[in-house]
Design goal:
Layout: H1 18-25, E1 31-32, H2 44-51, H3 66-76, E2 83-86, H4 88-100, E3 106-111, H5 116-123, E4 127-132, H6 140-145, E5 151-157, H7 169-178, E6 184-188, E7 213-218, E8 231-234, H8 237-246, H9 254-265, H10 267-290, E9 295-296, E10 302-306, H11 311-320, E11 323-324, E12 326-327, E13 336-340, H12 344-357
Parallel strand pairs: 1-11, 3-4, 3-5, 5-6, 6-7
Antiparallel strand pairs: 2-8, 7-8, 9-10, 10-13, 12-13
Helix pairs in contact: 2-9, 3-9, 4-5, 4-8
């Protein structure tokens, strides 16, 4: 009944929701630092815009996301026809695989990295070529050396999830330039808005130079719209036209479009979230150093820390204290935890509990 490849795909296991942990463990307060969400949530402007549009729930959304594309095109300096919206950039990875990958083709990606790259490749009958990180980041020399006649897509998560590291400007530019033009290079910039480092490249700058480049961005992270599922791709008009052929009609709901548009207007909220994230990372780093724990410096809103013990065991003990994080075993890093930055009190609660457990 089922395609054989389905048996090789592991289902995505989301972090435990707060309500479930409260119910299972009988806890009144739970701190969730597991899913790289913005602890501030959406801005007040977004909430107001949503309330004003509740009467339109009975009609289909704009399948083209016309108004949002216009606003994004002005912000990004590209044509509206170079933008495609999806139910999170996650959904767009499926479109990319469907457009480029035939059975037996391969796609190159890092390991560990965002797991959907592997999944969408396999669903299309493709072969994932997963290459280990070097110094916790993408080894683009190894990527280049593994390109062959069946390579169709190269996935680069920058910053990388789960390690939080980046490929710097010159290295990424030189790599994209070296890739044959018939291979799609996907640069996933989900955490881009958190970064100030001048060495971090915004790949949208190179869209007019490389017609095989696809850049992914999202409203799930710094804009605080994770539950509404909205992200976007920027690429050549030709690639976007092909992606639109496999995109379901009305894939981005009306409220998500309204919220994203309002979020783009609220630069103060983005600045506030960015400052909180920087402060939270510094707090974590300081405490990890005092505890003698190695951590990977992060450019995202999360950090990987080596607790020098079985991370699943530490995860379970933290859970009993009402704190949800991500154990690193799912990333092949069995002694690491991935911890999302939170509000000041939540960060302190995590550190206090971790010190008690260790």
């Amino acid at each position: 009944m089922f395609r054989e490849v389905i048996n090789t795909i592991s289902p995505y296991i989301p972090g435990k929701p707060i309500s479930e942990v409260k119910r299972e463990l009988g806890l009144e307060k739970v701190i969730k630092l597991a899913s790289n969400e913005n602890p501030l949530g959406p801005s007040e402007n977004v909430k107001k815009a949503l309330m004003q549009n509740l009467d339109e729930l009975g009609i289909y959304p704009d399948g083209n996301c016309t108004e949002l594309k216009l606003k994004l095109s002005k912000k990004l300096g590209v044509k509206p026809s170079q933008i495609l919206l999806g139910a999170g950039s996650d959904e767009i990875t499926q479109f990319i695989a469907a457009v480029f990958i035939n059975p037996g083709d391969n796609a190159i990606m890092a390991k560990p990295s965002f797991p959907r790259y592997e999944t969408v490749t396999k669903v299309m009958g493709g072969i994932p070529i997963e290459l280990p990180l070097k110094d916790f980041t993408h080894d683009l020399e190894a990527f280049y050396n593994n390109i062959n006649e069946r390579t169709k897509v190269i996935w680069i998560c920058n910053p990388n999830n789960p390690t939080g590291t980046i490929v710097k400007r010159k290295e990424l530019y030189d790599f994209i330039k070296s890739v044959p033009s018939h291979i799609a290079v996907v640069v996933d910039q989900a955490y881009k808005e958190y970064i100030d480092d001048p060495e971090y490249p915004d790949a949208t700058e190179w869209l007019y130079e490389f017609e095989n480049l696809i850049v992914l961005q999202t409203f799930s992270k710094i804009y605080g719209l994770a539950s509404l599922r909205i992200g976007y791709a920027i690429a050549s008009e030709e690639i976007i036209e092909k992606l639109n052929r496999v995109r379901p009609p009305f894939n981005v709901n009306h409220l998500a479009q309204i919220a994203a548009s309002a979020a783009l207007d609220d630069e103060e909220h983005v600045k506030k979230a960015k400052e909180l994230n920087k402060k939270s990372l510094e707090f974590f780093y300081k405490n990890f150093e005092e505890m003698g724990l190695f951590y990977i410096k992060s450019y995202g809103n999360f950090v990987m820390v080596d607790v020098k013990k079985d991370a699943v065991d530490v995860f379970k003990k933290l859970l009993l204290k009402g704190i949800i994080v991500r154990p690193g075993d799912i990333f092949g890093m069995p002694t690491y935890l991935r911890v999302t930055t939170g509000q000041e009190g939540d960060n302190m609660g995590f550190i206090k509990a971790l010190k008690e457990i260790l």
